[in-house]
Amino acid sequence: MKGSDQTKPLLTNREREVFGLLVQDKTTKQIVGQLFISEKTVRNHISNLL
């Protein structure tokens, strides 16, 4: 996908997943368990969202 008219999405698919769980009032530990990623990775995604 080359071309100057291509724009990068604001959020990655995984960041969207994490965001969706956050708005459902899921805790970091619940997100870890549901997405099978580390707590540090979840915190990184949350940081990127902010």
Automatic annotation (TrEMBL):
Signal sequence segment: none
A molecular-function term among this protein's GO annotations: DNA binding
One Gene Ontology biological process: regulation of DNA-templated transcription
Domain HTH luxR-type: 4-50
The keyword Transcription regulation is annotated on this UniProt entry: yes
Record has Calcium as a keyword: no
Keywords for the protein's UniProt record, in alphabetical order: DNA-binding, Transcription, Transcription regulation
Domain of life according to the entry: Bacteria
PANTHER family: DNA-BINDING TRANSCRIPTIONAL ACTIVATOR DEVR_DOSR (PTHR44688:SF16)
Protein name: Helix-turn-helix transcriptional regulator
Organism, as annotated: Brevibacillus thermoruber
Upper classification of the organism: Bacteria, Bacillati, Bacillota, Bacilli, Bacillales
